[in-house]
Amino acid sequence: MYWRDDYEAKVSTPKKALAHIKPGRTIFIGGGCATPKYVLENLLKKERSDDNKVLIPFTFIPSPFSDEKVQKNFRVNSFFMDSEVEQGISKGRMDYTPMHMSEVPYMLESGRISVDIAIIHVSAPDMHGYCSFGTSVDITKSAAKAAEVVIAEVNRQMPRTLGDSFIHVSEMDYIIEVDYPVEHDMDPEDVRDDIADAIGRNMSVLISDGSTLQVGIGKIPDAVLKQMHDKKHLGIHTEMFSDGVMELVEAGVITGEKKSIHPNKIITSFVIGSQKLMEFIDNNPMIEFRPSDYTNNPIVIAQNSKMIAINTASCVDLSGQVVADRTGLKDGANPGGQAEFARGASYAKGRSIVVMPSSTSDGRSKIVSSIPQGSGVSMSRRDLHYVVTEYGIAHLRGRTLANRALELISVAHPDHRSQLLDEAVELGYLPEDQSRRPYTGKPYPKEFEFNETFAGTKLFIRPLKPTDEDMLKELFYSFSEKTMQQRFMSTRMIQPRFERMSQVNIDYDSTMGFGMFRKFGEKTEMVAMCDYEYDVKTSNAEVSFAVRDNWQGKGLGTYMLDLLIKVGKSRNIKTFTAEVLSTNVGMLNLFYRTGLDVNAKLEDDVYVVSFNLVKQSD
Ligand SMILES: CC(C)(COP(=O)(O)OP(=O)(O)OC[C@H]1O[C@@H](n2cnc3c(N)ncnc32)[C@H](O)[C@@H]1OP(=O)(O)O)[C@@H](O)C(=O)NCCC(=O)NCCS
Question: Which position among 86, 153, 239, 247 bears the catalytic label?
Fold first, then answer.
């Protein structure tokens, strides 16, 4: 039959189409911007319960399925988790099927999860009789394939999206013609603008030019995208996207030209956003919509070089387990495809990142010692590489439980750090004698982070952190006998751990230290360090310095001394002292070169050097 005749014959009304749904059957209903609103409204008006089951993907809040009356008439089974689904299941009135989105198409098409009727929402047919699934191909295409009966809202305002995104009129049973806009602005989340912006700024250093991103929607992902305007040749392979991605395409930042698969294309399974976005995706060959078993397949994701998975979370525990799935916490997240993208990014030697504010809008810590009872882990701690909050970046990949806990505590809200530390000790993540110093003084002074070039090599200089112990250890054991002798006045072979621990557990006030770091490839090496320790009794701060042998004589010592003087002044320290071997001319020269009034007293073969941080004549 000519498809136009077929189409005309199938045009119906919701009443007629729905009358064919028999009791006890399972109905799939498309979601997001492709929710078939008109037919759904009619379906949910039903007064009588026919014991029908309803399968739903992503819905907007408030969801029509959260109504108690609806829940009495239909048993709803959701593939996505949000606060309303969470409430529904905690009252025993809804079902939730935790599953990787990439698996759902197989489960539906194989009949392992049965679908009898699919109610979908598609674009007007093209000249060959193909309608596009528009904003949502995701699991909807498979549901339509699997169902015995397909009821399709055909909407001339649904964009015609390209890719593996079509259904032919011959595959539909009832056609309901509608004409309404499909755009949707997500409700603004309860996150302060300055917090969202700080998260975006912290995050942007983890993204280099030419990376391929998976990024969801919401205030935090938007804040991340806002910070990308100075990047080049970014690509997108994602489960879903919104207006932020469109803006970066228009700005020439997202080009996809460096993508290792699907170059120059944005790959997605659904979108949500404004009318402008709907116009942007309409007939746009740059955007390929694919079902979830493709977009979310870790093996496909892993083929993207420099793949970066950016997800949000309800909370993260101190070992790095991510919960985006039933927490009871305010401002929940949605697990979506995060585990699959995290895995894919790991295989791609890329990055798996969680971005979130450190606290909920009602002030509870989103970094928790243990995951809340009854919640589901949405991403394993093995798959999480970084957590970014408004306080910085916690590096977790390849780190021990102890270092993970320390890193995460350092990006928690300062009000919660001390308690988290106690809990980490209680859990055995940290030793009983774990220093509290970094959590009792001033906050980590980000203002003392610098990039400088020495002998043609870029070095990163920053205050020391508790997790620097391993790098400090490497530095110590790299020293030659001469350096060892000059720094420690003995040719000691072993440095006890407690000594290093006290060097890295500092309060950034009376104890301060800096490391100079060189990054080559994925490895970071500490090439120099300096510190001071203030003694209240003497009002002096004792300073020490050490530079890796192959980096000596390149200006690092001079730089560190200037830095310590600057910081010391800002902390109202008046005098620095040091004990220097009389043969250590290099160190003595360094002090004299400051131009300050240096006083050196020789005791045995050691100079006790002291000087005021401010020149006396000033
Ligand atoms: C002492 C020590 C900290 C100095 O650090 P450093 O990075 O070597 O110091 P600098 O490079 O800034 O200065 C050292 C010399 O190199 C010179 N220099 C500085 N920048 C230079 C550059 N870019 N190219 C060539 N020479 C340079 C300086 O003028 C200085 O010369 P001088 O000794 O004749 O005055 C370092 O050598 C060290 O770790 N020694 C062993 C441990 C130790 O002695 N610690 C001190 C105990 S408190």
Answer: 239
What tokens appear for 588 in the block? 């003595």
Residue in the structure block whose two tokens are 């009871």? 328
What local confidence, expressed as pLDDT, does residue 150 receive? 98
What one-character DSSP code corresponds to residue 66?
G
Query: SS3 for 606?
Result: strand
CB 63 within 8 A of CB 83: no
Name all residues whose Cβ lies below 6 A of ligand 1.
455, 483, 486-487, 544-547, 552-558, 578, 580, 584, 586-587, 589-590
* Domains 3-178 and 193-434 alike in fold: yes
For 580-617, what is each residue's pLDDT tens digit?
A: 999 999 999 999 999 999 999 999 899 999 999 987 66
Question: Residue 176 — pLDDT band, cuts 50, 70, 90?
Answer: very high
Q: In the chain, what is the greatest distance between 2 CA atoms, to the nearest angstrom?
A: 107
Average pLDDT over residues 232-246: 96
Backbone angles phi, psi at 215, to 5 degrees: -145, 135
pLDDT at 329: 55
Domain ranges of the chain: 3-178, 193-434, 447-612
Cα 601 to averaged position of ligand 1 atoms, centre (Å): 21
**Ligand 1 mean position to 557 CA, how many Å?**
5
The domain 193-434: what is its CATH number?
3.40.1080.20
Q: How many CA atoms lie within 13 A of 522 on its CB side?
A: 8
Q: Which atom of ligand 1 is nearest to the CA of 559?
A: 12
Cβ contact 512:540 at 8 Å: no
Write down the pTM of the prediction: 0.88
**pLDDT at position 617:** 65
Fold of domain 447-612:
Aminopeptidase (3.40.630)
What is the rounded radius of gyration, in angstroms, for the C-alpha atoms of the chain? 30
68 is catalytic: no
Superfamily of domain 3-178: Glutaconate Coenzyme A-transferase (3.40.1080.10)
